[in-house]
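User: Predict the structure for this protein chain, please.
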Amino acid sequence: MKSSKRRALAVAASAAIAALVFAGCAPAADNGTTVNCDDYSQYKGHEGTTVEIYTTIIDPEAALFKESF
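Assistant: Here is the predicted structure, written as structure tokens:
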């Protein structure tokens, strides 16, 4: 492969990688839709309710799991 072809390939590959990186860092588009949560309104209002969660996670991961709530 000639040097000029390699250089062109390197430039094209760099441009493609840069495009992917910048596309991945771009903010999500706001399409203006709203979420309708009326179907779940019956589940609101349970402040102060105690919930028990059972898991097979053991310490030290279990401590981090508990702290996440």
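The longest helix spans residues 3-25.
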